Amino acid sequence: MVKAIKPNLSVKLGPLNLKNPVMVASGTFGYAQEFKDLMNLKKLGAIVTKTITLKGRQGNLPPRTCETPAGLLNSIGLENPGINRFIEEKLPFLKKTGIPVIVSIAAEETPDEFAVLIKQLEQNSDVAAIELNISCPNLQKTRLIAQDPQATFDLVSMARKLTAKCLIAKLSPNVSAITEIASAAQNAGSDALALINTLGGMSIDVNKRIPKLGAWVGGLSGPAIRPVAVKMVWEAYNKIKIPIIGMGGIMDTASALEFFIAGATAVSVGTANFINPQASVEIIAGLEKYMLANNMQNLTQLTGRLKACKD
Ligand SMILES: Cc1cc2nc3c(=O)[nH]c(=O)nc-3n(C[C@H](O)[C@H](O)[C@H](O)COP(=O)(O)O)c2cc1C
């Protein structure tokens, strides 16, 4: 009997090589230590940290999460220890995993904060990539950087000048034309795009007539947003050349496959981590099984391979 060849799951995001395309999404996996007894961290393709800001942040008033039909609404408000404590207290454990660490960063007030954060991370060899969170809906801003093509271009251009590491721009679904923002990030030198952050949402307790979240509004994640995310990945894939990291409601292998077929080079597992901490590891195994069954040796045979007709 001929033995089937094990598929090659490795992918490349600009200068960053990953042994497999499954990572965990920012803000849903803490700093990995929280998950060390719940799953095998060493199996992951990469770990994306909770978003870090210059100074530590307490986050928003509770309640900061509430469940909605097929989704989770959150208004964490970027609670994090700040860059210095992150490097001292969180990065050593992340380094020990041996898995590429993608550090997500954001500015509280002005884009200059991104520059300071990038300069600090650029010098640190334990950091594999930098993800620019320009799409957080929980900072009570009237307009996000990722809602403005020019602001996206300017921010990513500035970041590009400051780092040779893999640079990822994380985009917002709260826009009318995702392709405009995706093109702006690409043209400014982003190595890859992360698509999508949460969709703006609100939920009301009708008996008390109060908002269910302390911050009143928040960001929706989970299966409810998957069709929106898949569409945006597909639209971006048809417009741009750089790799896309797809996310939004990935719960299992089948939902991850939708993203690859729509055009994602890699995927990120978010809300599913709270329900099934093994989800990402199960998806890696499921992906390999699917590729074996479909005679695929590498992921280029899967990414963007959407068929036009139902044959
Ligand atoms: C509780 C929670 C906290 C999050 N915090 C962050 C964050 O700090 N930075 C960020 O870029 N995205 C954050 N996100 C968004 C996720 O990384 C992801 O883009 C989004 O939830 C869609 O994926 P999912 O439906 O698989 O969760 C957060 C999501 C949740 C549910």
Structure, explained:
The structure is a single chain. Helix 2 runs parallel beside helix 3 (149-162) and helix 3 packs parallel to helix 4 (178-187). The chain has 311 residues and is of the alpha/beta class. It is built from eight helices and 16 strands. The longest helix has 15 residues, at 83-97. The model has no long low-confidence stretch (mean pLDDT 96). Strand 15 (244-246), helix 6 (253-262) and strand 16 (266-269) form a beta-alpha-beta unit. The protein has helices at 83-97, 112-122, 149-162, 178-187, 226-237, 253-262, 272-275, 279-293; strands spanning 11-13, 16-18, 22-24, 46-48, 65-68, 71-74, 101-105, 129-133, 166-170, 192-195, 199-202, 204-205, 210-211, 217-221, 244-246, 266-269. 29% of the residues lie in helices and 19% in strands. An eight-stranded parallel beta barrel has the order 3-4-7-8-9-10-15-16, surrounded by six helices. A four-stranded antiparallel beta sheet has the order 5-6-14-11, with no helix packed on it. The two termini are 31 Å apart. Flavin mononucleotide (FMN) is lined by residues 25-28, 50-51, 72, 74, 76, 78, 104, 133, 136, 170, 197-198, 221-222, 225, 247-250, 270-272.
Notable characteristics:
311 residues; alpha/beta; eight-stranded parallel beta barrel; 8 helices; binds flavin mononucleotide
Q: Total strand count, please?
A: 16
Series of secondary-structure elements, N-terminal to C-terminal: EEEEEEHEHEHEHEEEEEHEHEHH
In quaternary terms, these chains amount to: single chain
How much beta, percentage-wise? 15-25%
- Percent helix among the residues? 25-40%
What integer value in Å does the Rg equal? 19 Å
The stretches of 5 or more residues where confidence is low (pLDDT under 50) are none
